[in-house]
Automatic annotation (TrEMBL):
Pfam families: rve. Residues 1-157 form the Integrase catalytic domain. GO terms for biological process: DNA integration. This is Integrase catalytic domain-containing protein. Gene3D superfamilies: Ribonuclease H-like superfamily/Ribonuclease H (3.30.420.10). Keywords: Endonuclease, Hydrolase, Nuclease, Nucleotidyltransferase, RNA-directed DNA polymerase, Transferase. It comes from the Eukaryota.
Amino acid sequence: MDLFELTDEIKDYTNYRYVLSIIDHFSKYTWAYPIASKTAELVLNNVEHLLNSLPKLPDIIQTDNGSEFANKSLETFCERFQIRVIHSSSYNPRAQGTAENINKYLHRYLWRNFKQQNSQQDWKIHSSLFSILNFYNKERRHTITGFKPHEVFFATDQSLFVRVKENVENKKSKSTKLHKNFSLEEIKLYSTIEFKI
């Protein structure tokens, strides 16, 4: 889970200042929520909303050490549902690389979408995020997994998990190290319950 700040023009137009991005680490499936401020309460409300919509709760939530993530209310919430919280160093590209990449992608396409509108009075940040995420999750193949995030996150066919694992192992990237030692059962479980936040 991570946050990124919107451009001044979008902030002025929408009264939102940040976007909270939540990424399933294995499948790369992504959710994003615009928020007015980066308070612990707003972050927790959005996390709770997302978790209530998922078929299974995550085992682990990973965030940086920002006060919006490293706080008693998120810890208490996660303890209640037996979710482990891991805090990595802020701006640590190795630990938060997936989240940082998604944030750059969302930021770039939100800005492009905003600037390309003929009449910005009709521009809605929620609709724009929905369109961007719909394309990202359902239309494009991820370079690491070789599959669309939607295909992996909602997969029921075990052979897909094997193929994803093989694709990941064949990639010579930092992301490979995160997956290579998992068994098929761990990958299946991990793919539906762990995300980088």
